[in-house]
Amino acid sequence: MCIMTSQHTISGNLFVFHAFDVGDEIDLEAVKRKQLLVPTQQPLAPYFKNYHIPLGISFPANHTTVCERAALHNFGVIALRYRIPFSNTTFEELRTRVLDLEELLIEQAITDAGILFHTIHHEIKQARFFHIRNSYMLVQVDHLAGSTDINSLKQEYGNLIAPLLRFEKEILSEHQKDEILESAFSYYHKDLIIIDVHAAFICDDEYEEVLDLFEFANVQHLELQYFDRVLDKQLNIVYEQEKKTPPLSAYLPFIGVIVSDPVGDLGKLKVDISVITDRLENSIKLTGEAYFSKLYGLLSEKLDLNNWKESISRKLAIIEDIGSIYQHKLEVIREDLLTCSIIVLIMLELLMAAYHGSQ
To answer: Hey, where are the domains in the chain?
Structure first.
């Protein structure tokens, strides 16, 4: 597999995935029709379903970048992928290079995404650069001559791989190192993958198909974080609304529904979030793909995707309950106002009848 000593050098690539949420929706058809950006052929791995294929694009001719791949997702995301090759490098040298490149690549990604955003911003609903961004790094190492097992590799090079995946300059404690390396797995005899929160390590020559999976997980992580923030904001709005006295117009039948309809607003938000999260969750079909299923399962675990989904579901339920209570309160007050109005009208009729009877 990967026999390495302190004298061994390694070759491979650093892949950095960036994702930017720039709005609610990107009209991909308008981008193509108006030729704002030139589409490119970027075939995805076969486990992606057709309805989730993003629009691969190239940068404007006057913009120079080292970005290997750029794509637009219709739910308002710009995804960028960078590839930095390295050769005849030791783990110590690679770790230093990663630390030096981290901030530089963030600045480059923001610049590149900004160029794309300003080119297509008229075709973005609720455009803003940017609501939130997310990134993930993959360290890919080519196979070396010889073979060994996972345990010996972890024991010999765990102290170097662990801080590399955490972007740390110092050697990590045994506890932290073991926590990172416990995710290590091998599918084929010469493969090794270690998944962590912000970066992953893969020892494999044939790695192309997994790149799409890492990019997809990064985009999914971004969108779940974004929706969680949107729901936090909605919770604050509903909470502040509860503390304030609703305007008189809110209690009026028909007019009140038009002026203030928190349940309707919540329903639209819930539909929007549900559609996108369901599409993201069902965008890949890994049935029968043991290797990719294992990889995506570890990515989901390390990126905490299930907890983000549960958090969104809980907040949707809370907002729905609060909105229902608020709406019920308005309906009760409207009914009371209607009852009072009827009583007043009856009293007026009685008074008018009494007045005419005394004439």
So the answer is: 10-211, 213-357
